[in-house]
Write a structure and sequence with these properties.
- With 259 residues, the chain is mainly α.
- It is 61% helix and 0% strand.
Length: 259
Protein backbone atom coordinates (compact mmCIF):
# COMPACT_ATOMS: atom_id res chain seq x y z
CA UNK A 1 0.00 0.00 0.00
CA UNK A 2 2.72 2.47 1.00
CA UNK A 3 4.95 1.48 -1.92
CA UNK A 4 1.97 2.38 -4.10
CA UNK A 5 1.85 5.80 -2.43
CA UNK A 6 5.56 6.31 -3.25
CA UNK A 7 4.82 5.62 -6.89
CA UNK A 8 1.82 7.96 -6.89
CA UNK A 9 3.79 10.79 -5.31
CA UNK A 10 6.65 10.26 -7.74
CA UNK A 11 4.15 10.36 -10.59
CA UNK A 12 2.67 13.63 -9.32
CA UNK A 13 6.13 15.19 -9.08
CA UNK A 14 6.98 14.09 -12.61
CA UNK A 15 3.81 15.59 -14.08
CA UNK A 16 4.53 19.32 -13.61
CA UNK A 17 7.61 21.45 -12.87
CA UNK A 18 8.54 22.58 -9.35
CA UNK A 19 6.28 20.05 -7.64
CA UNK A 20 3.06 21.64 -8.85
CA UNK A 21 1.61 18.22 -9.65
CA UNK A 22 1.24 17.66 -5.91
CA UNK A 23 -1.50 20.31 -5.89
CA UNK A 24 -3.62 18.30 -8.34
CA UNK A 25 -3.48 14.82 -6.82
CA UNK A 26 -7.19 14.19 -7.21
CA UNK A 27 -7.23 15.27 -10.87
CA UNK A 28 -4.06 13.45 -11.90
CA UNK A 29 -4.54 10.20 -9.98
CA UNK A 30 -8.30 10.01 -10.64
CA UNK A 31 -9.61 6.63 -9.37
CA UNK A 32 -6.30 5.88 -7.65
CA UNK A 33 -6.56 9.01 -5.49
CA UNK A 34 -6.66 8.48 -1.72
CA UNK A 35 -7.03 10.94 1.11
CA UNK A 36 -3.71 9.81 2.62
CA UNK A 37 -1.84 10.39 -0.65
CA UNK A 38 -3.26 13.89 -0.91
CA UNK A 39 -2.38 14.59 2.73
CA UNK A 40 1.26 13.67 2.16
CA UNK A 41 1.32 15.47 -1.20
CA UNK A 42 0.16 18.72 0.41
CA UNK A 43 2.77 18.41 3.17
CA UNK A 44 5.55 17.78 0.65
CA UNK A 45 4.49 20.74 -1.47
CA UNK A 46 4.50 23.06 1.55
CA UNK A 47 7.71 21.54 2.97
CA UNK A 48 5.89 20.77 6.22
CA UNK A 49 6.41 17.81 8.58
CA UNK A 50 3.76 15.11 8.54
CA UNK A 51 3.10 11.76 10.17
CA UNK A 52 5.90 9.57 8.85
CA UNK A 53 3.77 6.49 9.49
CA UNK A 54 1.74 7.58 6.47
CA UNK A 55 4.88 7.09 4.40
CA UNK A 56 6.62 4.07 5.89
CA UNK A 57 6.55 1.65 8.81
CA UNK A 58 10.35 1.40 8.94
CA UNK A 59 10.93 4.71 10.76
CA UNK A 60 10.27 4.69 14.51
CA UNK A 61 11.04 8.34 15.30
CA UNK A 62 8.52 10.94 14.09
CA UNK A 63 11.20 13.65 13.90
CA UNK A 64 12.29 15.24 10.65
CA UNK A 65 15.84 15.71 11.89
CA UNK A 66 19.38 14.74 10.92
CA UNK A 67 19.55 12.64 14.09
CA UNK A 68 16.79 10.38 12.74
CA UNK A 69 19.13 7.86 11.12
CA UNK A 70 16.34 5.59 9.92
CA UNK A 71 14.82 8.51 8.02
CA UNK A 72 18.19 9.42 6.51
CA UNK A 73 18.66 5.82 5.37
CA UNK A 74 15.19 5.87 3.80
CA UNK A 75 16.02 9.11 1.97
CA UNK A 76 19.23 7.61 0.59
CA UNK A 77 17.77 4.28 -0.51
CA UNK A 78 14.13 4.69 -1.57
CA UNK A 79 13.87 4.25 -5.38
CA UNK A 80 11.53 7.23 -5.80
CA UNK A 81 14.23 9.92 -5.84
CA UNK A 82 11.91 12.89 -6.32
CA UNK A 83 9.97 11.93 -3.19
CA UNK A 84 13.21 11.35 -1.30
CA UNK A 85 14.43 14.84 -2.21
CA UNK A 86 11.25 16.52 -1.02
CA UNK A 87 11.34 14.65 2.30
CA UNK A 88 14.99 15.68 2.60
CA UNK A 89 13.92 19.31 2.08
CA UNK A 90 11.68 19.07 5.16
CA UNK A 91 14.59 17.68 7.19
CA UNK A 92 16.82 20.50 5.97
CA UNK A 93 14.24 23.14 6.90
CA UNK A 94 13.97 21.60 10.36
CA UNK A 95 17.74 21.71 10.88
CA UNK A 96 17.98 25.24 9.49
CA UNK A 97 15.24 26.46 11.84
CA UNK A 98 17.25 25.19 14.82
CA UNK A 99 20.02 27.72 14.17
CA UNK A 100 17.92 30.70 13.03
CA UNK A 101 18.45 33.51 15.57
CA UNK A 102 20.54 31.09 17.64
CA UNK A 103 23.81 30.88 15.70
CA UNK A 104 24.33 33.46 12.97
CA UNK A 105 27.45 31.81 11.55
CA UNK A 106 25.70 28.46 11.06
CA UNK A 107 22.59 30.23 9.79
CA UNK A 108 24.70 31.89 7.11
CA UNK A 109 26.43 28.60 6.30
CA UNK A 110 23.08 26.93 5.61
CA UNK A 111 21.78 29.92 3.65
CA UNK A 112 24.86 30.34 1.46
CA UNK A 113 26.04 26.76 0.95
CA UNK A 114 23.22 24.32 1.62
CA UNK A 115 19.72 25.76 1.44
CA UNK A 116 18.51 26.19 -2.17
CA UNK A 117 18.75 29.81 -3.30
CA UNK A 118 15.95 29.22 -5.78
CA UNK A 119 13.19 26.67 -6.28
CA UNK A 120 14.39 23.18 -7.09
CA UNK A 121 12.70 21.71 -10.14
CA UNK A 122 11.43 18.57 -8.46
CA UNK A 123 10.34 17.27 -11.86
CA UNK A 124 13.98 16.60 -12.78
CA UNK A 125 15.57 13.59 -11.09
CA UNK A 126 19.10 14.96 -11.57
CA UNK A 127 18.15 18.21 -9.82
CA UNK A 128 16.57 16.22 -7.00
CA UNK A 129 19.68 14.08 -6.57
CA UNK A 130 21.96 17.12 -6.57
CA UNK A 131 19.81 18.80 -3.93
CA UNK A 132 19.64 15.70 -1.73
CA UNK A 133 23.40 15.19 -1.74
CA UNK A 134 24.10 18.86 -1.05
CA UNK A 135 21.60 18.90 1.81
CA UNK A 136 22.85 15.67 3.41
CA UNK A 137 26.48 16.75 3.09
CA UNK A 138 25.73 20.18 4.57
CA UNK A 139 23.76 18.81 7.49
CA UNK A 140 26.54 16.30 8.08
CA UNK A 141 29.10 19.10 8.27
CA UNK A 142 27.03 20.90 10.89
CA UNK A 143 26.51 17.70 12.88
CA UNK A 144 30.28 17.10 12.94
CA UNK A 145 30.77 20.73 13.99
CA UNK A 146 28.49 20.18 16.99
CA UNK A 147 30.24 16.91 17.83
CA UNK A 148 33.67 18.54 17.79
CA UNK A 149 32.37 21.50 19.81
CA UNK A 150 31.19 19.17 22.57
CA UNK A 151 34.74 17.86 22.91
CA UNK A 152 35.75 21.42 23.81
CA UNK A 153 32.85 21.79 26.22
CA UNK A 154 31.03 24.18 23.90
CA UNK A 155 27.31 24.27 23.28
CA UNK A 156 24.55 26.82 22.95
CA UNK A 157 25.73 30.38 23.49
CA UNK A 158 29.37 29.46 24.16
CA UNK A 159 29.58 27.73 20.77
CA UNK A 160 27.78 30.64 19.13
CA UNK A 161 30.38 33.10 20.43
CA UNK A 162 33.32 30.96 19.30
CA UNK A 163 31.72 30.66 15.85
CA UNK A 164 31.33 34.45 15.74
CA UNK A 165 34.99 34.92 16.67
CA UNK A 166 35.93 32.77 13.68
CA UNK A 167 33.52 34.65 11.46
CA UNK A 168 32.16 31.49 9.86
CA UNK A 169 31.24 27.90 10.63
CA UNK A 170 31.93 25.02 10.46
CA UNK A 171 35.62 25.55 11.28
CA UNK A 172 38.59 24.02 13.05
CA UNK A 173 38.57 24.57 16.82
CA UNK A 174 41.77 26.06 18.24
CA UNK A 175 42.79 26.95 21.77
CA UNK A 176 43.18 30.67 21.16
CA UNK A 177 39.79 31.22 19.53
CA UNK A 178 38.01 29.02 22.07
CA UNK A 179 39.61 30.95 24.94
CA UNK A 180 38.71 34.25 23.25
CA UNK A 181 35.10 33.17 22.84
CA UNK A 182 34.79 32.04 26.46
CA UNK A 183 36.16 35.32 27.77
CA UNK A 184 33.94 37.42 25.49
CA UNK A 185 30.87 35.55 26.76
CA UNK A 186 31.97 36.07 30.36
CA UNK A 187 32.44 39.83 29.81
CA UNK A 188 29.12 40.15 27.96
CA UNK A 189 27.32 38.50 30.89
CA UNK A 190 29.14 40.61 33.47
CA UNK A 191 28.32 43.87 31.70
CA UNK A 192 24.62 43.07 31.31
CA UNK A 193 22.33 45.52 33.12
CA UNK A 194 20.16 43.93 35.78
CA UNK A 195 16.63 42.85 34.91
CA UNK A 196 15.07 45.92 36.53
CA UNK A 197 16.95 48.32 34.25
CA UNK A 198 14.69 50.05 31.72
CA UNK A 199 16.03 49.23 28.26
CA UNK A 200 16.71 51.98 25.74
CA UNK A 201 18.57 52.52 22.48
CA UNK A 202 21.13 54.62 24.33
CA UNK A 203 21.57 51.89 26.90
CA UNK A 204 22.05 49.30 24.17
CA UNK A 205 24.70 51.43 22.49
CA UNK A 206 26.54 51.94 25.81
CA UNK A 207 26.42 48.20 26.55
CA UNK A 208 27.69 47.23 23.11
CA UNK A 209 30.49 49.81 23.15
CA UNK A 210 31.61 48.72 26.61
CA UNK A 211 31.76 45.04 25.68
CA UNK A 212 33.35 45.59 22.26
CA UNK A 213 36.22 47.57 23.76
CA UNK A 214 36.98 44.59 25.96
CA UNK A 215 36.56 42.27 22.99
CA UNK A 216 39.46 44.06 21.30
CA UNK A 217 41.62 43.65 24.39
CA UNK A 218 40.75 39.95 24.73
CA UNK A 219 41.51 39.32 21.06
CA UNK A 220 44.88 41.05 21.29
CA UNK A 221 45.76 39.06 24.41
CA UNK A 222 45.16 35.78 22.56
CA UNK A 223 46.58 37.04 19.25
CA UNK A 224 43.23 36.57 17.51
CA UNK A 225 42.49 38.77 14.49
CA UNK A 226 39.52 40.96 15.46
CA UNK A 227 39.23 44.62 14.50
CA UNK A 228 36.16 46.18 16.10
CA UNK A 229 36.51 49.26 13.87
CA UNK A 230 36.16 47.20 10.67
CA UNK A 231 32.56 47.75 9.60
CA UNK A 232 32.89 45.04 6.93
CA UNK A 233 34.05 42.36 9.35
CA UNK A 234 31.65 39.44 9.79
CA UNK A 235 32.97 38.87 13.30
CA UNK A 236 32.32 42.47 14.34
CA UNK A 237 28.86 42.42 12.77
CA UNK A 238 27.97 39.10 14.37
CA UNK A 239 29.13 40.24 17.80
CA UNK A 240 27.28 43.58 17.66
CA UNK A 241 24.04 41.91 16.57
CA UNK A 242 24.39 39.27 19.28
CA UNK A 243 25.07 41.87 21.97
CA UNK A 244 22.08 43.93 20.92
CA UNK A 245 19.83 40.86 21.10
CA UNK A 246 21.37 39.98 24.45
CA UNK A 247 20.73 43.49 25.82
CA UNK A 248 17.11 43.47 24.68
CA UNK A 249 16.52 39.94 25.89
CA UNK A 250 16.39 38.65 22.30
CA UNK A 251 13.52 40.98 21.44
CA UNK A 252 13.56 41.85 17.77
CA UNK A 253 14.17 45.46 16.83
CA UNK A 254 12.55 46.66 13.61
CA UNK A 255 15.24 49.24 12.97
CA UNK A 256 18.84 48.21 13.59
CA UNK A 257 20.46 50.79 11.31
CA UNK A 258 21.74 52.80 14.25
CA UNK A 259 24.30 50.04 14.85
Amino acid sequence: MKNKMYEQLEHLLAELPYGDGLLYARDILKDEWTEQTEQVAQALYNHEPFDLQLLTDTIDSPDFSYENKNLLEWIQTVPQRRVAAMVCRIVLDSEFNKVVDENQALQDYYAENVHPSSSVNWQQVDACEAFTQRALNGMGEVARHYEEARKWGLEGESLHVVDMVWGWAPHVFEEDTVATGREILEVANQCQPDKLTIRSDAGARAYIDKVMKQVQQIAEKHDVDIDITDVYSLTTGYLCNWLMAKYWGNQRKEDEEWL
